[in-house]
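Collaborator request, handled under Task 6.
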Amino acid sequence: MRRKFDPFRQSTGGWIFHCDADAFYAACHMAEQSYLHDRPLAVAGDAKTRHGIIVTANYIARKFGIKTGMNLNSARQLCPQLTVITPDKALYRRYSEDLHKIFRQYTSLIEPLSLDEAWLDMTESLALGQDPRPVAKELQDRVRKDVGITVSIGISINKMLAKQVSDWSKPSGLTVLTGGEVRSRLWNRPMLELFGCGPATSHKMAEIGIEDIGDLAQWPLSDILHQWGHHGLQLYLRAWGKDWTPVSSPSIADRRSVSAEHTTAADLSAVEDVWPWLQLCAQEVAERLRQLDLVGYRVGIKWRTPNFVTHNRQMMSHRPLNSADTIYWYARKLWNTANCPVRLVGISVSVLETPSRQLRFWDN
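Structure tokens returned to the collaborator:
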């Protein structure tokens, strides 16, 4: 597969942008209804019940301590005046399409991560010797004017670093990290911020004294390989800013599955709390399938318990899958074998092919 991690691959020689819409779901509703701009707003799985889970919140609401994954009842205790809106997947798809249309005006080499997030390889138009800020600022202005939302952009010499720095100055952030700034600006960041390092790995590394990215970069590589193997090598090289995995427009040739997963801020203790997250994952997977012009025949769910044990379940469909409702239906059916509490929920669709093949099959 072309996107497999390869530390010996050469750099593309140009800037990589990581574009990430700010509080995307909330921003879409704010763009549609201007009166929401000055109000604390949250998008929740079920605004009518105490079991609704916060999917995202705007930045006004976040000042009250409201976070993704929080129980709606707890959020309202923090902010009684909170405006709560039920997710509208059709609205998010429309805004995502408008956002990606603008991306395509800057480069043909785009790797989407989700509805509101993508890597842009700017090598054809921007060499490393050129200042990328004017182009990035123009892109931000275009999105703000034409779509009505804001994006934060991280810019660096590879995908990993670009994604990492895009979170440093949200919202509407624009951050550039050069290869020569890795030691001075990256090494003092906590391990949990390193791309690919999850809470479990971060916790285990902290137990032996690796607390920030600089600690890892200066740790004996033999110890890292002994305890974490290939994954440890990936993290070690990324701590030095070395990951030349290319930006790759997805295709059937290099994709085995399409997936989405979310780690919640708090453990989900009731099955009613899980449904909104499964629905969100199903929506994101369906959107990716649509963007890739693919269908699948196997649905899988993934969940992780508070003790960091990961579980998976799968089932086949005799009909092609690419709609959010159908994927969600299968996911709920699979969830009958799962147990709460959980801290991560995900959905994948695999056994992929193009819709045209399936149409010809049934026509015959």
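The cover message to the collaborator said: "The CA atoms of residues 104 and 363 lie 35 Å apart. The domain at 24-87 is CATH 3.40.1170.60 (MutS, DNA mismatch repair protein, domain I). Please let us know whether this matches your experimental observations."
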